[in-house]
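stage 2 :: seqdesign
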């Protein structure tokens, strides 16, 4: 039976149906929420590129949020078709950041052709290119070497691998990290590589300096003030947001001096014992003063649980209320190359001094490497900031959002004092500065809680009766 022209065309052109099915196999991967209130993340590096085959749960990229760096894995098995962001760009939470063909059959150029062309457009081959004129040919030949020498950078591709701390260091020193040759594993850029690059750059700059030519004498102090705009790092952005919200909290400061003399002796004895004991994995070989202070704060919260609460609004009455929390999750402020971070030691009330010291050491190591996870920052109920290890004696700490108190610790100093027999003795004195939310905490409550901490630090043997 003879077929009409339309039937003949349909019988010989099933191409568009096949490609539409292939197009529907491309799945956009959405950037999920990785923390409390985080709305965007910086793409640090990609582990894949368009055309690469990925399996389920294989790593796609590393992103840096306001608080920590996180490795994002694939939800599907397939072929990467498109990267929505380049390394260094900000990716929005809840928006696609990579497209994956879960069938892995179509090539990237085929997908682009399908998207650009409507399904009912005839399959017409492109017209042959016209012969170039002699002038155009010469121009093309002249431009070809330049095109070979400077290939376009592929979207999303990162030439260097480095931790967020190293990337922050490169930004502070105004260095493009892609220009630095990494000496670490798999070409990872280390801090030493950054410092070596700066040293070599400065040495080249000094060698290229030419003796200045004589110029007419100019009046002194004629230089013009210049201003340079520098973007905030992700850590600085988080601090900016947090401290701005803290402005709504009416602070009051309570300070006192604490005698560390007995704690100094106890710490020395315990460190001698630890030095003679066999090493245990995860257990610190030396104790600092901070675990004792953290434990003392936790013991004071048992008597004054109001300091462990947070201010909220009762959904039933729409009135302000205090939400009491059973666990003592104490945040510890840490100074890193990328800025200030406040990881949290969870459930301090159930930990002894050695366990607190081990967890503190773990968090400090991760903070130094820039590898803290979002879970390490969550759930804090009160914060301790040891500014003394930097060099300050007095501090007025700022309360962290969703908390009502914070302790700032100053530098220890040796001062002369009188004992009970009026003899002059040496004492190790440290200033403790407390800030509290005056909407819910009055001065008397803060003073009593601070007194409990002072007594325990000055008589550390009291901890033995309360350790769990």
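stage 2 :: out
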């Amino acid at each position: 039976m003879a077929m009409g022209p339309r039937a003949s065309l349909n019988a010989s052109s099933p191409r568009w149906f096949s490609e539409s099915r292939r197009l529907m196999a491309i799945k956009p991967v959405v950037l999920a929420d990785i923390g409390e209130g985080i709305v965007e993340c910086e793409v640090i590096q990609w582990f894949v590129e368009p055309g690469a085959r990925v399996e389920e749960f294989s790593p796609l990229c590393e992103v840096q949020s306001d608080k920590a760096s996180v490795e994002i894995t694939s939800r599907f098995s397939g072929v990467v078709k498109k990267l929505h962001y380049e390394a260094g760009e900000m990716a929005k939470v809840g928006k696609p950041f990579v497209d994956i063909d879960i069938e892995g059959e179509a090539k990237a150029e085929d997908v682009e052709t399908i998207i650009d062309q409507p399904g009912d457009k005839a399959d017409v081959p492109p017209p042959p290119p016209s012969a170039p004129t002699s002038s155009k040919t010469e121009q093309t030949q002249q431009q070809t070497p330049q095109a070979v020498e400077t290939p376009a950078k592929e979207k999303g591709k990162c030439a260097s691998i480095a931790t967020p701390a190293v990337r922050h260091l490169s930004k502070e020193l105004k260095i493009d990290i892609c220009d630095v040759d990494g000496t670490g594993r798999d070409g990872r850029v280390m801090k030493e590589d950054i410092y070596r690059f700066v040293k070599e750059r400065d040495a080249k700059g000094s060698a290229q300096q030419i003796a200045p030519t004589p110029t007419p004498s100019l009046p002194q102090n004629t230089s013009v003030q210049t201003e340079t705009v520098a973007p905030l790092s992700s850590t600085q952005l988080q601090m900016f947001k947090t401290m701005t919200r803290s402005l709504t909290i009416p602070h009051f400061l309570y300070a006192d001096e604490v005698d560390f003399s007995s704690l100094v002796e106890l710490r020395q004895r315990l460190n001698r014992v630890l030095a003679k004991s066999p090493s245990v994995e995860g257990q610190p070989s030396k104790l600092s003063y901070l675990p004792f202070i953290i434990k003392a704060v936790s013991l004071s919260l048992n008597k004054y649980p109001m300091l462990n609460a947070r201010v909220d609004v009762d959904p039933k009455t729409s009135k302000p209320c205090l939400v009491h929390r059973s666990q003592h999750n104490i945040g510890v402020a840490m100074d890193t190359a990328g800025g200030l971070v406040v990881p949290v030691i969870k459930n301090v009330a159930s930990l002894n001094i050695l366990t607190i010291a081990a967890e503190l050491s773990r968090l400090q190591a991760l903070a130094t490497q820039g590898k803290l996870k979002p879970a390490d920052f969550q759930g804090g109920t009160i914060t301790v900031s040891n500014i003394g290890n930097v060099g300050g004696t007095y501090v007025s700490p700022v309360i962290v959002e969703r908390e009502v108190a914070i302790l700032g610790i100053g530098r220890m100093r040796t001062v002369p004092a009188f004992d009970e027999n009026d003899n002059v003795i040496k004492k190790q004195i440290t200033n403790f500065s407390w800030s509290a939310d005056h909407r819910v905490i009055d001065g008397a409550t803060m003073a009593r809680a601070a007194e409990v901490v002072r007594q325990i630090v000055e008589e550390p043997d009291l901890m033995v009766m309360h350790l769990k």
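stage 3 :: structure notes
- Confidence is low (pLDDT under 50) at residues 17-24, 104-128, 130-157.
- The two ends are 93 Å apart (CA to CA).
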